[in-house]
Amino acid sequence: MELLVSTEVIAAFRDREGRYVWASPAYERMVGGAVAGTTVGDWATAATAERVRAEDERVWSGRAVRWSPENPGHFTTASGERVWLAGRKSLVGGPLLGMIAVDTSAWLADRRALTAAQTRLSRFLAHAPAVSTITDAEHRYVWVGGLGPEEALGRLVSEVLPPELAAQVVEQNAAVLASGNSRQVRVSSATEEWSGHRFPLPQPDGGTHVGTILLDVTEQERARRSAATWRNRFLALLDRSPVPTCVATKHGRISVANPAMAAALGRRPRELVDADLEILFSTADTETHRRLMHELSTGRLARRTLRVRWAGHSGTLTVQAVPDDEGLALLATLAVDPKAPPEPPPLSERERDVLTRIAAGESTTVIARALGLTAEGVTYHVTRMVKRFGVPNRTALVARAFTLGLLPV
User: Fold this and answer.
1) Which residues, including other chains, have CB under 8 Å from residue 231's CB and lie 6 or more apart?
2) 12: β partners
3) Fold of 128-216
4) What is the mean pLDDT of the segment spanning 273-277?
5) Architecture of domain 2-108
6) Buried b vs exposed e over 69-89: b needs ≥16 C-beta within 10 Å?
7) How does the average pLDDT of the chain come out, rounded?
8) Cα dihedral: 367, 373, 374, 375 (round 10)
């Protein structure tokens, strides 16, 4: 009796008329007060009193009443609260009817919550476009959901999957079992690709299973490879284009520049990565620049041309906004203004006479006689002009003189 008083066990004794002889503190807390000398009908609902009376008659007839957590009894107090019980009613000496039970209300609430969570998870996995499985330490399927093959249950991975896939799965599961940590994984064959996670699931017996959730990424991978192929083609075309071109973020920071753009700026292509267009180029066309910045800030696919200068050069920069994965990017091309032709080197009167006669096809001897010079004197003038014009010989000298307009056509 002392044990019943000091614990949370719900216990009571009633006589043949249904009056309480004794009740444990837990019982009296359950019903909301002392019950000695009362009957159930004095403070419980009519339905509860009738059900208790029927159970009591069964016990008085010699048959015990038992409640289990799976099939609990219940008691509804006068306040309307329902208490779920696991225990038994039976006859004890006296003769008295004894009841001893424990409150399983919290356990049942937890079990209902767990059951609801399991139901939601099962429904989710049944409809999710994913393969969800659990395998044991021997790589045998103990649970299959979602898109997983139902016929796999109870079979080894090697019995269900093609050899190339089974080898990957077994290796990945073994790594999870060895490390005790979850892993991001990828499983692929010639026609399919799956990506997801494998994670350890400790078992009550001390063992460990491996849970797996995999998504079919075949189409995404095919699209990614296609995009990479086209990106590589674009970069190859960009690299070979003679037009100075670069690609930049919408804020003007260069991500890639072709050799032609690098040459126009006097740099190497990799030196332009992360360079800022607004620092590389200056412009006096502030209105066009303002419009371009406004259009880019509002997400418009703007196309503007700007007169720009850089390092003693000038040209036209065409900036075209194009869509990309991050919203907008800039495709910039540069048209470099041609440099003015160099001023022809100055010629003395004597040099002009020598050059004119060389162009006429006269020999050194004939030129010397006609101008009253020695042959060495003619050669001296020719050598000076060759060096000054930066050409290799007298034939090239004549060609350059015609180009610069120093000789009549």
Assistant:
1) none
2) 23, 99
3) Beta-Lactamase (3.30.450)
4) 94
5) 2-Layer Sandwich (3.30)
6) eeebbebeeeeeeebbbbbbb
7) 88
8) -30
